[in-house]
Amino acid sequence: MEILMIVTSGVIIAVGVYLLMTRSILRVVFGIVMLAHGAHLLILTLSGLQQGAPPLLTEEAASYADPLPQAVILTAIVISFGITAFLLVLSYRTYKVHQTDDLEELRGNADE
Amino acid sequence: MNNIVLLPVLIPFIAGTLLILFRHYPRLQRISSGIVVFLLLFSAVFLLYLVYQEGIQTIALGNWPAPFGIVLVADLFSVLMVVLSSIVGVACLFFAYQTLSKEREKYFFYPFYFFLLTGVNGSFLTGDLFNLFVFFEVMLISSFILIVMGGTKYQLRESYKYVVINMFASILFLVALALIYGLTGTLNMAHIAVQVAELEQAGVLNTAAILLLIVFGMKGALFPLYFWLPKSYYGPPAAIAALFGGLLTKVGIYAIIRTFTLIFVHDTGFTHTVILALAGFTMFFGVLGAVSQFDFKRILSYHIISQVGYMVMGLGLFTPLALAGAIYYIAHHIIVKSALFLFAGATQKITGTTDLKKMSGLLKTHPVLAWTFFITAISLAGIPPLSGFFSKFPLILSGIEQESYIIVVVALIVGLLTLFSMMKIFIYVFWGTPSLKKSDYEHIKMKPLLLPIMPLVALTIILGFAAEPIFSFSEVVADQIIDPSIYIDAVLEE
After folding, report:
1. B420 touches A at CB < 8 Å
2. Any stretches that span the bilayer, and where are they (chain A) (predicted)?
């Protein structure tokens, strides 16, 4: 199962990197989103895939699964969600003002 | 346990939250934010005094004991950084009163100014690696908003790149965290340090170390990851650029120094040699960029890069003397660099441009501005008896002691080129015949414009003339961070 998860996150990250290197503004945003998902999966995998009870004080308390990776991922998801929303608005405004979504044209002048 | 540790994070956070509600009352916003930054400065200085007197202070949030919950740790190094960030916070805020446009004030400048300070101070104080990520994000999101605020064509274009690059770095940070958590099973920095010492997998640890170095290097503008900096710092108005130039990269540098003195000391032959090499390249290419530019703000932005190199050089040499030099250098750099950015803002306000070739003769019309700029500029270049000299001296001295002659030569050449490009600014802007008519600048009152910069100029002079006590203080700080067991004991044996 670990192998499968690692390969999955590897593929997702590869897709993310590919999108990140394209010239369209929106695709770069999607690339960032994919990369974030890959990283989240990686956190889950690298901290060990476990089966166990929820970490609550019940009769199964002794065999609980480590809750920390999940808490970490939850926080990371919220943060990447917020930044993605901001990034989408920013891309839209950039597109509106510059009238192009081609990053090659958004390089700026040579003398800057 | 000491609740005062929380204050430098809590004060700006609460202030920022409340100020959102009062966006239509600029006067109220100005007065209350003025009071809040002084409160912040006061609490930071008090915390520094406390830590100096009574040793490292910690607080376990939610009362969860150390390796399990999140701890905030105030040791001398982190509190020193908090004090410096508060000083810059005060100066930039008062400068913003004079230069910021009404629209920016109305659209949540003050709340995000304080959220930025929350993130910066939190990153300095936290003792938990994931919490460091969270505070980084708090700082970054505020910086995204401040850097794009105003929404000019240039700002939008460069902010987009700035956001994407920082987002990418944050994702790499997460990957590094996953690796470290998988290896050690903990996120508490002190606990990681204990675990790392017991692990015998130097190879995997080096991978994690280099990943973190890339992440923090991207935020701290190390070679070859500095390409985003000069363009993005050019866009926003001077008050914001000064805050960014003074603080943001230094958060990355702080994180590098913290992790590579506390956690990754298992294989210094590899990691710290890499850091030293990066330091040399960063210095050299940064200063070359500065020499080639003819724009006030751009020259200053490139100088940030070259000077980040000096700080990292202190870490790369990894002796108490070199670290003390690096700490002294950080203090000097934060103050001087913010002051120079504010000077750029002041001249921009007078002349309406930051292009060096379009300015001349300000020495005759604005002598106070000219001479205080001159003092700050030669302080940056490292002319004795100002602070720049006394912060470079121990770095170069310990470079010679360690027989790393190449880095010493690079550092000396870079110092010379720094002097050259600062003098270029001085000659272009202040010498020559005045190009402005009296009616152009008469209405601009210089006193309120210069008032926020003067404390910074005074501080660089004090840092230079009182080099003896201040350097012995940074030696105390260096002794504390070069021995990880002090930090570990303070955090874990509560």
Report:
1. no
2. 6-21, 28-48, 68-90
Q: Which helix (H) or strand (E) holds B58?
A: strand B57-60
Q: Which SS3 state, helix, strand or coil, does residue B60 take?
A: strand
Q: Which of B244-248, B332-336, B359-363, B467-471 is predicted least confidently?
A: B359-363
B103 secondary structure, DSSP code: H
Cross-chain Cβ contact A94/B144 below 8 Å:
no
Measured between beta carbons, the chain B residues lying within 8 angstroms of A20 are 164, 168
Q: In Å, how far from its chain's centre is CA B9?
A: 17
d(CA A106, CA A95): 10
CA B338, B56, B216, B256 torsion-angle sign: positive
Residue B244: closest CA among B318, B172, B147: B147
Interface test with B, best of A34, A72, A93, A107 (most B CBs within 10 A): A72
Q: Out of A68, A76, A93, whose CB is closest to B174?
A: A76
- Mean pLDDT for the stretch of residues B162-183: 93
What ipTM describes this predicted complex? 0.93
Q: Which position has the higher pLDDT, B121 or B185?
A: B121
With a cut of 80, say whether residue A54 has pLDDT above it.
no
**Closest to B452 measured CA to CA, from B50, B98, B46, B6:** B98
